[in-house]
Structure formats: C-alpha cells, structure tokens
UniProtKB/TrEMBL annotation:
This is Helicase ATP-binding domain-containing protein. The chain crosses the membrane at residues 678-697, 709-729. It comes from Shouchella clausii. Residues 25-209 form the Helicase ATP-binding domain. GO terms for cellular component: cytosol. InterPro entries: Helicase/UvrB_N (IPR006935), Helicase_ATP-bd (IPR014001), Helicase_C-like (IPR001650), Helicase_Restrict-Modif_Enz (IPR050742), P-loop_NTPase (IPR027417).
Length: 893
C-alpha cells in the first residue's frame, strides 16, 4: 500500500480557525515541516490527521502516552474512516508496523536501544506507558526496528515532543535521521519557551520554527471552547499538621538567634579566607558569590566589623545588606558544613552546630533545610485541609447549579483501604485520594448531591442511578454486577476488571451526562487524558503528582463545548495549602505558581487573557490567614455568576487580537535613564558664563561705549546657549524617551533589538513602536515585541530577561555610576549571551544603550578588573532578594 484510499476524507465541517490554518498549509508543506501550537480542545489531532491524509505517504505518529496514542487511532476511525472495521493498514503495535503506525516515544526508545531508561516528564503513577517492547530480546528488537525502517515512512508526526527526556530525544532524532527526506508535522499545546538556548535549539531542530498558533481566545470566540475560569482556594495546615510545622519553625527561630551570638562561630566566620584575604579570592568568590554574600550578611547581623573590608571590595554598601534570614543561613551553613573543601567539617564549632541542626530535624541527606523539609513539603501538598476545601467548593457549586451540576474531582491515588467495611466503621480520614474524598463528601454533603467514584478498579454509583446505569450497560452489551456499599445502602459498588474497564468508563460517563450523577471522583490516570465528557461544568484539581503538561490536559476536560448547551461555562478549582510562616508560602504555593505558567485564561478583575497566576489577583507574599480568608471570599464572589463570566469573555475576545509571548517584570528591575549628569554639565556652562555676565554688569565704567557693554552682556548668553544646548538637548531627549517606566522598558527593548539586528541575530528590520509595554497589577510591567518571527521574538525576550534580571555570569556587562541627592548610585546590567559572545556585538549593544538611556561603561568580565565589577554586580543583585525575577507569559493582545 503506497497511498490512502480515495474515500478517506474529513467527514465534518472545519471550524473557522482550522480553515485558516489549513489554507496556509500547502505553502508551509513545501519546506517539509509544519509546526503547530494549539491548546487542548482545539482539534490539533484532527489537523494532524488531515495533514497526514493530504501528504498521502506512509506515516509514523509518535505520542507521549498510550492514552494519547490510542486517541490518535480512535480520532482517525471516527472522523475520517468510512467503514465499520479497523483497516489492517493502521497499527498501534510498533512491533508490527503498517502504512499508518502510531506509537509512543517510550516504545520507539525501547526499540532503538537495549534498555528502557529515561521517561516522560513527570513519569509516575498517573502516566500510562507502553510496555510492548519490554519483553523483546536484543535480536528481536533489531528485527522489529528493521521492519519499522523498511516501511519507508515519509511523514513523521510528533505530538508534544518537548516533554521528552534526553534519552528519548536521541532516539527520536536518530529515527528521524534514518528516514529519507521525511515531512515533519509537529504539534504541541505548550512550547518550551522557558528552556535553555541549547534545549530550544534541539526542539527547533526536530520540530522546526513555529508556523502557526491557535490561541484559547480564538477558540472561545469561535464557540469551540466554553467560557471558563480558574479559581484558587487557599488553605492552611490543619491543627495536627501545623503542630510539628510550628515546632520546627520555632526551633529554627531559636537557632537563628543563638548562632548570631555564638562567639566561637562568629570568630570562625571572621577567619574565613573570603573575609581575611578577599583580594586574592576574587575568582573563587565569583563562582560562590551567594556563599560570599552569606558570610558578609551573617557578620553584619552579628555586629562584627569584619564584613566591611570585603564588602568595600565588592562595592556593597551597608544600606543594601539584607537581613540574615533562613535563606542566607542555609547558604552559609550548607557550605561551611558540607560543601567548602577548604574547611574541616568535623572541627569545632561546626560539629556542635551540625548536631544542633540534626536534633531539630533541619538536616536531610547532608543538606541544611531551615525553611522547610521534604516531609513538611509533602504535608502541605497532601494537607487534609483540602478535604474541607473540597466540601466547601462542592457545596457552593451545588447551591448555584443544583441539578445542573456536573462536577469532576481528579485525584492521584485510589486509597481503597480507606473505604469502611461495615456501618459504624467510619474512621477519621488521614490522607487524600479518591476514596477519602468520596467519604468526606458523603459524610458532609447534602443527600441531594449524587456522588460517584470511577477508577480503573473501583466504581461506586448512587442507588438512584442504578436504572440508568443498567440501561447504558445494555447498550454496550455488558451486564453489571452490583452490590450495596457495605456501610451505606444509598450507594452501589460495581465490579470492574481489565476486560470491562473501557465499557465501564463509557457507561458511567453516560450516566454522569444524564444528571444521575452530579459529582464524579476519579483518578488522573483514567480520566486525566483522553477522556471525553463535554457535560463537565466544574473541575476540582486534587492531583499533584503529574507533569505541568498533564495539568493542561486535565483542565482541558472541562473546557470542551457541549452540544445542545450553548450557555455552558466551566469553573476550574485549584487548591493550595500555604505555610504562613514562610515568606513565599511554601512548597505547595510555589508549585502552583509554576503550574500556572502554562495555563492561559481570563483575568478575574480585568478582561485580559494571559498565562500566569497574576491574572487571578491572588495575594502576594507575605501571606497571612486573614488575607487568605479574604481571598477565598472574593473568589467565591467571582465564581458566583457564570453569566457575568460569559459576558466578560465575550468582551475580552470581541476585538481583533493575536497571541503574543511576553515578559512580566517587576517595575523596580527596569533600568532608568541617567540624565542628571547631562543636565548638570549644561548648568555648569550656563553658571560659568552667567558669572562672567554678572561681572560685566558690575563694571559698566570699563566699557568705552554702550554698544560694547551690550555686546559683553549678550555674548555670554549666546555662547552659553551654544555650548549648553547639546547637553540640554541630550537630557531632554533621554527624559522624553523615558518619561514613564513603560517608556524606559521600551527604550531598553529598542536598544537591544537594534543591536540584535545589527549583529545579524534577528533579520526583521526595526520599526517604530515595535515594542509595547503596559502596567500590570502588583507593580509589574508586561512587555512584548510586535514584529519578527516566533524565533526572533523568543530570542529577543530571552535577551531582555538577561538584561533586566539580576546578573549571573555574563561575558560583558554595562556599568554606570551617577551622583544624585548627594549619594553615589552604581548599576550593573548584563550584556545578553547572544550579544556577549564577541566584543564587536557587545559594543553594538553599548552604543545603542547610550543613545536610549545615557552614559554607561562596557566591561569585559574575564579580565582581573572585570571580575571585580562582576563580583560587585552580583553581590548587589543578591541584595535585591525581594525583587522577583521576570517571567515569560503568553497573552492575547
């Protein structure tokens, strides 16, 4: 077989945005690469299948999991195939390839190599993987791989390729290279914009530059995704969970006070080589700049004078030294106790300090942890306070939607052992999981809310749903084995095994859709990917183990439109347990913020569409119980009116827009211009010549005529105007370009882009107003580039982040010093890696910087003098510990 049967074609109508994408594909396919970005629910799988049919060549499709692999086959049969039976030219068994072969990356890797190392990002309990090739011996693998190559695949489709680990990358790249001029079709929901340049290059080498992007806003506008909103419900640890956590924080607090008065340890730090001989340790101090800073900060906190000399060398002023808190103590103690090879870790007083830390549980595997421990991190993630949160959320949604409620809760584990065995056997719930969540809701939620459980091994339905379940079972030819739940006759337990699992999912989904089930609790492994239930209007994310990509997939379950229900909206609830004793809220809070980097949606207060947690107006550190309570109250108020949500989405997508990649940066990190010195020069010139004029007026008798006196009066004015004009003009020009913080960001961006263009790194010429910057909430700015290719925008934003973020180890940096208000100010900015590789390109950036922002000095940091500047810059960066780093976000503008 060399081509598809002529009858193969898409059986339905294309959506508007899909037509737009397909209209451009013929031109794009001439390059033998197509790279499409599209969110879950946009039909990217269908577009991939259409491209496969248009190319009309033997095709190999790679998917990240077994569930998604099977979904490719199911979608093709459902949407393109005209027959009832699966044709023999489609295979999901990599050992028996066919004209269309669909496999997982893991399956290909296992076949290519003699081992099964690496894995899908976040590989754990909720990721299904392929095991077909594990039983094959070395010879059989080689034969199977040869059969694969003999198929002569000319179309290679890679789905969500960027989530692969290094070993899988190599196998995929090697396989692609073994094909003869294949056409690559790359599909993804979340491009890896935040990875290193090397990783991005690997990704682009496989997938090619991004050719087309479908945005969530387009899908909602076209009616292909429903209006939706993410909500965050914040909890704090339960009393039982908080006791050991509070004891730990108190022990650490006591230790922090004690160490600052420990004369033996203070003396030990004062004798450190970075303190006694900093001039000869510059290179090592650069490599361990945080360690060096921690020594200074500790000595300053102890009122020791020893910090002053090394601080002077590093250009660090006392006002810029941050307080000695747990983060700095961890940095200091981890080095002196374990990492610093020049220190004997067994000497006194280190041994006593180590024993103290071990007593309070602040050392784990030779690592000092004063803010939290792995045990406490897990207790936050799995806090039982989230059970109460789910009860409140379900009660709230049930009160608003009543019988229309279709709520799904996704959890990581089943915990079947927690199901009571008989009446009165109800034990206190001690952990999260499907069964504990079911029991929590069963015990505390009104009987009118019909609960159900759906996992691969356990199914529970309300007794009232029995008739509907049996009706749905008859449709698929399955006889249900039901028995009353031992401890509650209002529920039925249904037997399920490997042979009936797929049909059981179909049955329970149908019962859920009819409304005989209101709340369905299931596992991420079964329902998180590939499960289609368009009736879902509320989702609670009680899953914390999977990858960030999986979060997007799970969330996508609720966003799908439902036929016959044009007014559908979806609320997606995320729970977070916050440790109020930690400035950043602790591990669970940080994890939630990372997850939101890939979740795009509508703002809760403004009609903006972008990724990141800031759009939800979630409180900023430091967190307090009262603040979190107020936040939850606001959240319920926002979630109350779904009609308002739908109206706000309509307003947000009403205007023409396009997807953008941006950076969100704290306004304090944006370079501001220096016009003080330029203005001062002009004032000096004017002052000097005015003095001359004053002398002239005071001595009128020295002039022979009135004309001569007028000449000497006017002459200084004219001369001062001529000489001062350039300085005044430069000051005015810089001020005008940077009159607001937004304009300053745009000036930095303009200087950067022009330098990148001059260096040949970006090809699109500069245009006026090519950069846009707006003020966002919480004192931040959002900046994006309106010209250039996706690749050029990525290069620009990455370089801009390097400029405004605290410097790390650039080859060149920009240094400037100014005096204002009787004090000296020093600033250090990195020359981005792309421009810093060569002196010539670094100088291009330097020239453009001076035009836009005023005077600065270009410093080569690999020289002895340059290392001093770099050390000073990095130490200053550490003093700005509470200024957050910039972040990449996706938006619709």
């Amino acid at each position: 077989m060399n081509e598809f049967p002529q009858s193969i074609q898409f059986r339905y109508q294309w959506r508007t945005y899909q037509k737009k994408i397909l209209a451009d594909m013929d031109a794009l396919l001439q390059n033998q690469r197509v790279h499409l970005v599209a969110p879950p629910g946009s039909g990217k799988t269908v577009l991939g299948l259409e491209l496969m049919v248009r190319l009309n060549k033997p095709t190999f499709i790679l998917a990240p999991t077994v569930a998604i692999r099977n979904q490719w086959a199911e979608r093709f049969l459902e949407l393109f195939w005209q027959g009832d039976e699966t044709p023999d030219w489609i295979s999901t068994d990599i050992r028996q390839p066919a004209f269309v072969t669909i496999a997982t990356y893991q399956g290909l890797h296992s076949l290519c190599s003699q081992e099964d190392d690496g894995g899908f990002e976040g590989d754990d309990v909720d990721i299904a993987t392929e095991q077909e090739t594990e039983s094959l011996g070395g010879k059989e693998r080689k034969e199977a791989y040869k059969r694969l190559l003999d198929m002569g695949f000319q179309t290679l489709i890679v789905d969500e390729a960027h989530h692969l680990r290094a070993a899988w990358w190599k196998s995929t790249i090697d396989f692609r290279r073994s094909l003869v001029k294949p056409t690559i079709v790359a599909l993804t929901a979340t491009p890896p914009y935040d990875v290193s340049q090397k990783e991005w290059k690997n990704y682009i080498d496989l997938c090619g530059p991004i050719d087309a992007e479908i945005h969530v806003a387009e899908l909602v506008k076209e009616g292909d995704l429903c209006p939706h909103q993410d909500y965050i419900y914040a909890t704090t640890p339960t009393v039982k969970e908080a006791e050991p956590l509070l004891a730990f924080h108190n022990d650490v607090k006591s230790f922090m006070q004690q160490i600052k008065t420990d004369k033996a340890f203070i003396s030990f730090v004062e004798q450190h080589r970075y303190i006694t001989d900093p001039a000869n340790q510059a290179q090592e101090m650069l490599a361990n700049q945080a360690y060096f800073s921690s020594l200074l900060i500790f000595l300053h906190a102890c009122s020791s004078e020893a910090w002053k000399q090394p601080a002077k060398l590093a250009g660090l002023y006392e006002k810029n030294i941050p307080p000695f808190e747990e983060e700095w103590a961890e940095e200091l103690l981890n080095h002196v106790l374990y990492k610093d090879a020049e220190i004997d870790e067994k000497q006194s007083p280190l041994n006593e300090i180590r024993q103290h830390l071990q007593r309070i549980g602040a050392i784990e595997r030779r690592k000092v942890t004063l803010r939290s421990t792995k045990t406490f991190d897990r207790s936050l993630v799995n806090s039982l306070s989230k059970l109460d949160a789910m009860t409140e959320i379900v009660s709230f949604e049930a009160s608003k939607l009543e019988g229309k409620l279709r709520l799904v809760i996704l959890a990581d584990y089943i915990r079947l052992i927690d199901l009571p065995k008989q009446p009165g056997d109800e034990q206190p719930l001690t952990r999260l999981g499907v069964i504990p969540i079911f029991e929590q809701l069963r015990r505390h939620i009104n009987q009118k809310v019909k609960l159900a459980v759906l996992t691969g091994s356990t199914v529970i339905i309300p007794t009232s749903a029995k008739k509907q379940a049996q009706t749905e079972a008859e449709k698929v030819g399955l006889e249900l084995k039901l028995q009353p739940l031992a401890h509650d006759p209002n529920y039925l337990l249904i037997s399920v095994d490997d042979n009936t699992r797929a049909k059981m999912v179909s049955i329970i989904t149908a019962v859920f859709t009819t409304g005989d089930i209101h709340v369905l609790i299931g596992t991420t492994a079964l329902l998180g990917e590939g499960w289609d239930a368009p009736s879902i209007n509320t989702l609670i994310m009680a899953s914390y183990v999977g990858s960030f990509m999986l979060s997007n997939q799970m969330r996508g379950r609720a966003l799908r439109i439902e036929r016959g229900n044009p007014n559908k909206t979806a609320n997606i609830w995320h729970m977070v347990c916050i440790d109020t004793k930690q400035y950043d809220g602790g591990h669970d809070c940080l994890s939630l913020q990372r997850r939101f980097k890939s979740l795009i949606g509508l703002g809760t207060e403004d009609n903006i569409i972008e990724s990141g947690i800031n759009r939800l107006a979630f409180p900023k550190p430091r967190y307090r119980r009262k603040l979190l309570k107020e936040s939850n109250e606001k959240t319920f108020a926002w979630a109350e009116s779904r009609q308002v949500l739908a109206d706000r989405w309509r307003k947000a997508v009403a205007m023409e827009g396009r997807p953008t990649e941006e950076i969100s940066a704290d306004a304090r990190s944006v370079p501001r211009p220096l016009w003080f010195e330029t203005t001062l020069k002009a004032m000096i010139v004017i002052g000097f010549l005015t003095l001359w004029q004053g002398v002239t007026v005071e001595r009128p008798s020295s002039y022979s005529s009135k004309t001569e006196m007028i000449f000497y009066l006017v002459y200084p004015i004219v001369v001062s105007a001529i000489f001062a004009a350039p300085f005044f003009w430069k000051a005015i020009r810089i001020w005008w370009r940077n009159s607001t913080i937004e304009k300053s960001m745009e000036s930095v961006g303009e200087a950067l882009y022009k330098a990148l263009h001059q260096a040949g790194i970006v090809e699109t010429p500069w245009e006026k107003d090519a950069i846009s910057t707006i003020k966002a909430g919480h004192g931040s700015l959002e900046c994006w580039l309106k010209i250039g290719t996706t690749y050029e925008k990525t290069v620009f934003l990455k370089a801009l982040q390097e400029v405004i973020d605290p410097i790390e180890d650039p080859r060149y940096l920009l240094y400037r010093q100014s005096k204002a208000h009787f004090r000296t100010r020093k600033d250090y900015f990195a020359v981005p890696t792309e421009l810093g590789r060569k002196k010539a390109t670094a100088e291009m950036f330097h020239r453009e910087w001076k035009k836009q922002l005023g005077k600065a000095e270009l410093v080569y940091t690999r020289s002895f003098e340059g290392r001093q500047f770099l050390l000073q810059g990095r130490v200053k960066a550490m003093s700005a510990v509470f200024v957050p780093r910039s972040e990449r976000i996706s938006a619709w503008r």
